[in-house]
C-alpha cells in the first residue's frame, strides 16, 4: 500500500465509488481494489449513508440459467463481451460500462432490471472460472448463458422455447417478486436480446 502511486489509488477510489453507487456489495470492492476493508467501509457509508450489508455473495450458477434471469444475464454478458473483445476495454471498465448500458437499455424499454450489479459481477467471475459459457441458439442465433459443457448441437434458448405458462408464473413470482411491470419486462427483454443479436 505504501509505495502505491497516488494516481493509482485515486483511480481505485473512483472505481469503488462508482461500484458502490451502482449497488456493489463489499466483497466485490475488496476483490477488485487494493483499498483496505476499513477504507471501503468508510467509503460505503459516505456514499450510501449506511453500513454495507453483511452476508455471503450469491454462490450458485443455477440462478443464471433460470428463465428470466437467463435472458437478462445473456443480454448483459453479450454487451460485456463486445466491449472487451471488439472495443478492447479493460475488464473492470468493461464491466461498469456494460452494467450501465444494460440498465439504460432496460430503462429505454421501460423494463425492470433483474440482474443486480453484484450478480452481474458474479456472472463474470463464473465465466472466468469456466463454470458458465455462451451457447448459440439453433432457433434465433442469439448467444445465451449456459452451464459449461452444455451440449450445443440442439440448443434452443428460453425465448424461442419459453416454459409453459404455469411454470413461468411460478418462477416469476419467486424471482421477480412483486414487480407489476414484470410481464411486460419479460417480453421487452426478450425482444431486446433478439434484436441485439440480429
Ligand atoms: Zn433462440
TrEMBL record:
Cofactor binding note of this UniProt entry: Binds 1 zinc ion per subunit.
Biased composition (Basic and acidic residues): 175-189
One Pfam family from the record: FlhC
InterPro entries linked to this entry: FlhC
GO-annotated cellular components: cytoplasm
Coiled-coil region: none
GO MF term list: DNA binding; zinc ion binding
Biological process annotations from GO: bacterial-type flagellum organization; positive regulation of DNA-templated transcription; regulation of bacterial-type flagellum assembly
Localization of this protein: Cytoplasm
Principal location: cytoplasm
UniProt binding sites for Zn(2+): 137, 140, 157, 160
Role according to the record: Functions in complex with FlhD as a master transcriptional regulator that regulates transcription of several flagellar and non-flagellar operons by binding to their promoter region. Activates expression of class 2 flagellar genes, including fliA, which is a flagellum-specific sigma factor that turns on the class 3 genes. Also regulates genes whose products function in a variety of physiological pathways.
Name assigned to this protein: Flagellar transcriptional regulator FlhC
Lineage: Bacteria, Pseudomonadati, Pseudomonadota, Gammaproteobacteria, Oceanospirillales
Gene: flhC
Amino acid at each position: 500500500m505504501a509505495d502505491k502511486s497516488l494516481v493509482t489509488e485515486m483511480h481505485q477510489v473512483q472505481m469503488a465509488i462508482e461500484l458502490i453507487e451502482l449497488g456493489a456489495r463489499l466483497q466485490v470492492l475488496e476483490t477488485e481494489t487494493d483499498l483496505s476493508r476499513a477504507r471501503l467501509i468508510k467509503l460505503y457509508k459516505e456514499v450510501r449513508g449506511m453500513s454495507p450489508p453483511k452476508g455471503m455473495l450469491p454462490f450458485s450458477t443455477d440462478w443464471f440459467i433460470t428463465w428470466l434471469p437467463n435472458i437478462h444475464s445473456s443480454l448483459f454478458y453479450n454487451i460485456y463481451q463486445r466491449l472487451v473483445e471488439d472495443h478492447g476495454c479493460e475488464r473492470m471498465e468493461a464491466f461498469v460500462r456494460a452494467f450501465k448500458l444494460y440498465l439504460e437499455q432496460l430503462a429505454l424499454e421501460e423494463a425492470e432490471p433483474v440482474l443486480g450489479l453484484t450478480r452481474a459481477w458474479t456472472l463474470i467471475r463464473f465465466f472466468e472460472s469456466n463454470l458458465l459459457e455462451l451457447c448459440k441458439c439453433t432457433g434465433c442465433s442469439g448467444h445465451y448463458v449456459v452451464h459449461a459443457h452444455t451440449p450445443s448441437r440442439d440448443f434452443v434458448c428460453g425465448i424461442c422455447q419459453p416454459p409453459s405458462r404455469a411454470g413461468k408464473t411460478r418462477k416469476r413470482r419467486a424471482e421477480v417478486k412483486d414487480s407489476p411491470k414484470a410481464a411486460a419486462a419479460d417480453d421487452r427483454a426478450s425482444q431486446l436480446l433478439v434484436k441485439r443479436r440480429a
